[in-house]
Each structure stands twice: as structure tokens, then as C-alpha cells.
Backbone:
């Protein structure tokens, strides 16, 4: 079983659909992240949760709605998306969000991603 | 603020040839440095990291990177590449200590190994 698991791996949706991406980590980490990876663009940090509290929203449109019910689970709810939202969405986790503590380098562990296509 | 520059978006190389993927960063404080690899249709995996101590760090599959503080660089090298090394490689930097800090990624370099 991998440390960070994302489902579904592939998702095709229309612009009026509502769907959710799920991420689960089995590493005992306290911080979880959503990144967007589009072709020929840098990785974009979308949201950060630390101890279930959202600590970062990187100017993400409201059609993306994150949810973190506990430190092990992270969701990304999708509603009325646009074709330009098609991308690979990557979930990651780390021990916590602050690097520099004893043994805590802030290293991120990534899931395999959810490939989203918006028609 | 930190930033990471990977000047080469794509590096084509023949199998068994050496390769260097360049990474430069800017930061006024101490940082941790990372190289991640992304194989086709997969997420990112940590390849190697520099935290402190020896400036030369190695991965289990033959890659190495050297931290050069004076040049603010963390270039990735391999003396002989394989077809299976074809992937996208991301350099990343994270500030040590302080308040909430993010991992800053470069734009990635696609290593294309040809037979």
C-alpha cells in the first residue's frame, strides 16, 4: 500500500457536473496539500491544510472546494469547472507544514495524481 | 522569498551518456534542497535531498547532486543514463525553520534518453 493514495486516477466530467477527488495518507502526517499540474506550466500549489486547518488558499477559484475532515483525508470538491481546469491534480503530505523541527525536513510525499478532463 | 530556476526544459541524451540537469535557487536564508522525479502518468517521487553536512548527496539509482552555496546551485548528475531514467525532474527548495514555509518547485526538466 502506497503512503499517499488518490482516487479516482482518471476523471472525465462535464462543466455542469459535481465530482470529488479523494486523497488518503497512511504516513501519520499532519499536513496535506493539493497541487495542480498543467502541461508546460510549473506545479501550482492550491491548498494547504495543517492539523486539519486550512493555512493556504493560493487564490484558487471557488469552483474548487477543499475539505479536510481529519489529518489522514483530504478532498477536493469540483463544481462547474471549465475546460482549462483539465490537469493532473496531485495530493501530498508532510510531517507538518513547518520545516526545521527535529527530524522534520518538510519533505513532501506525493500521491500518483488524479487526471481530470473537463469537457 | 525563495525561487528555483531550471533553465533547461528538455534534455535529450543517448543511453549510457552522462547527464547534468541544472538547478539554481535564490534565498537569503538557509534552505533544504530536493530533487523529485516524475515518471509518465505518475506522481512525484523524492530522488534525493540536501539537508546539511556533506555537499554531495546520492540516490540509490546512481544520481547525485552537489550543493554549491557560493553559486546557489544544486545540479543533478548521472555518469551513465538508462532508458528507464526518462522522466521529468523537478528541483525544489524549502526554507529552514521560521514560520510557515512552502516547498517551491522549479518548472521541471524533461530528461529524454534515446537508445
Residues:
Amino acid at each position: 500500500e502506497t503512503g499517499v493514495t488518490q482516487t479516482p486516477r482518471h476523471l472525465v466530467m462535464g462543466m455542469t457536473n459535481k465530482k470529488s477527488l479523494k486523497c488518503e495518507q497512511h504516513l501519520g502526517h499532519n499536513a496535506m496539500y493539493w497541487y495542480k499540474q498543467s502541461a508546460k506550466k510549473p506545479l501550482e500549489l492550491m491548498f494547504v491544510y495543517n492539523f486539519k486547518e486550512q493555512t493556504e488558499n493560493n487564490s484558487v477559484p471557488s469552483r474548487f472546494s477543499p475539505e479536510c475532515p481529519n489529518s489522514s483525508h483530504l478532498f477536493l470538491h469540483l463544481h462547474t469547472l471549465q475546460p482549462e481546469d483539465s490537469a493532473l491534480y496531485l495530493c501530498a503530505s508532510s510531517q507538518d507544514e513547518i520545516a526545521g523541527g527535529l527530524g522534520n525536513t518538510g519533505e513532501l510525499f506525493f500521491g500518483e495524481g488524479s487526471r481530470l478532463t473537463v469537457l | 522569498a525563495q525561487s528555483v530556476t531550471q533553465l533547461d526544459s528538455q534534455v535529450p541524451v543517448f543511453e549510457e551518456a552522462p547527464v547534468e540537469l541544472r538547478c539554481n535557487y535564490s534565498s537569503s536564508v538557509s534552505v533544504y534542497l530536493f530533487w523529485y522525479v516524475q515518471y509518465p502518468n505518475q506522481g512525484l517521487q523524492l530522488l534525493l535531498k540536501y539537508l546539511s553536512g556533506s555537499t554531495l548527496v546520492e540516490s540509490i539509482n546512481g544520481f547525485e547532486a552537489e550543493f554549491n552555496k557560493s553559486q546557489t546551485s544544486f545540479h543533478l548528475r548521472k555518469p551513465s543514463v538508462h532508458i528507464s531514467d526518462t522522466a521529468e525532474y523537478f528541483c525544489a527548495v524549502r526554507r529552514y525553520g521560521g514560520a510557515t514555509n512552502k516547498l517551491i518547485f522549479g518548472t521541471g526538466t524533461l530528461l529524454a534518453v534515446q537508445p
Remarks:
- Chain A is about 0% helix and 55% strand.
- The mean pLDDT of chain A is 89.
- Chain A touches chain B at residues 4, 6, 41-43, 45, 48, 50, 55-56, 90, 92, 97-100, 105-113, 115 (CB under 8 Å).
